[in-house]
């Protein structure tokens, strides 16, 4: 399996290494792999791979960013789950709002600043559509 370029940690610049998820999460039931900073756990940055592949879902994230990406996804996903837009339309809407290329509009790639934008803009849409915004 070829790897286009070496994956590095965004925080400390160290190379990321592919490890079994079960080892990182200390849970034998965890399947698949995770790219982990070679300084883990002193540098707490990792990213999961797409199931059945060795392709990372996004850039490496530390605990705070991992949490924020989850919140951003929860807010954004409500837009298409509540059928305010189709999933595809929602991604186009998001790329338009953020000024990002639709091809590269992936919350898993976003940093703190972009995640905040996603949460803010998604909530506006949900409020404008008189949907209950969960406190999550
Ligand atoms: Zn690191």
Question: Could you list some keywords that capture this structure?
Answer:
136 residues, alpha+beta, 2 domains, three-stranded antiparallel β-sheet, 4 helices, binds zinc ion, DUF3268
Number of domains: 2
> How many DSSP helices?
4
Q: Quick one: overall form?
A: elongated
Strand order of the largest sheet: 1-2-3
Assess the beta-strand content as a share of residues.
5-15%
Report helical residue fraction: 25-40%
Q: Could you tell me how far the N terminus lies from the C terminus, measured between alpha carbons in angstroms?
A: 39 Å
The secondary-structure class comes to alpha+beta
Number of strands: 3
Bound molecules: zinc ion
The main β sheet shows up as:
3 strands, antiparallel
Uncertain runs:
none
- Rg is 16 Å
Order of helices and strands: EHEEHHH
| Overall pLDDT level | 91
Please describe what this structure looks like.
There is one protein chain. The chain has 136 residues and is α+β, with helices and mostly antiparallel strands. It folds into two domains: 1-60; 63-128. It is 38% helix and 10% strand. The protein contains four helices and three strands. It has helices spanning 21-24, 63-81, 87-98, 112-128; strands at residues 16-20, 33-37, 46-48. Strands 1-2-3 form a three-stranded antiparallel beta sheet. β2 (33-37) and β3 (46-48) form a beta hairpin. It is elongated and about 45 Å long. The termini are far apart. Bound molecules: zinc ion (ZN). Zinc ion is lined by residues 9, 11-12, 14, 37, 39, 43, 45.
């Amino acid at each position: 399996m070829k790897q286009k370029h070496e994956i590095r940690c965004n925080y400390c610049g160290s190379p990321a290494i592919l490890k079994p998820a079960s080892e990182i999460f200390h849970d034998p039931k965890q399947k698949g792999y995770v790219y982990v900073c070679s300084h883990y756990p002193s540098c707490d940055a990792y990213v999961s791979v797409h199931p059945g592949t060795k392709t990372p879902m996004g850039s490496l994230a530390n605990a705070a960013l991992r949490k924020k990406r989850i919140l951003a996804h929860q807010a954004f996903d409500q837009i298409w789950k509540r059928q305010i837009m189709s999933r595809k339309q929602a991604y186009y809407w998001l790329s338009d709002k953020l000024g990002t290329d639709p091809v590269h509009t992936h919350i898993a790639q976003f940093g703190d600043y972009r995640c905040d934008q996603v949460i803010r803009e998604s909530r506006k849409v949900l409020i404008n559509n008189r949907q209950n915004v969960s406190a999550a």
